[in-house]
Specification:
Length: about 160
């Protein structure tokens, strides 16, 4: 059975092992990345663009409800649980199959761009009827930076845990 710290596993398989340690790593990476996102979105972004990033507002627009706490919870669960699993089981396997020698941080940055496109084009534009990428206002670029920081943190934790 391959273990999380087995370097041979990462060279021979596109996917991480389906063991508890992989899912613990995903959760740890998601928590760390979400903390970085929140510091950026609510602590730093307001000084740069005049207001915080508020993904709960997007969640409300997509699903058509007014419960702010539920929208915050949905965004947190997506960031802590689903985005890390997407990185481990979609982004990295694609990268390993297509460009195996690509550094982890390039894969992470590409994943961050993908998350940003998903948030501001697919969800905001196609589902919540906002302009594509919110019309490329300053908040758009703060969102890009936040998604890049999120994904870099995610990738760094996964790398450090040797999954």
């Amino acid at each position: 059975m391959a273990t999380m710290t087995n370097p041979a596993h990462s060279r021979t398989s596109l996917f991480p092992p389906l063991v508890a340690a992989t899912f613990v790593t995903a959760l740890m990476a998601g928590i760390a990345a979400d903390i970085v996102w929140e510091v950026w979105a609510r602590g730093i972004t307001p000084f740069l663009v005049g207001g915080p990033l508020q993904p709960a507002a997007l969640v409300q627009g997509v699903f058509g409800f007014s419960n702010w706490a539920l929208a915050e919870l949905i965004h947190a669960v997506v960031g802590v649980v689903f985005y890390p699993l997407g990185y481990l089981f979609i982004a990295r396997p694609i990268q390993r199959a297509v460009i195996p020698a690509l550094p982890w941080w390039v894969t992470a940055l590409a994943y961050g761009v993908g998350l940003w496109i998903f948030a501001l084009y697919i969800m905001a534009h196609l589902f919540a009827n906002q302009p594509p990428f919110l019309g490329f206002i300053p908040l758009t670029w703060a969102s890009l930076a936040g998604h890049l920081l999120f994904a870099l943190t995610l990738g760094a934790v996964v790398k450090a845990r040797r999954v």
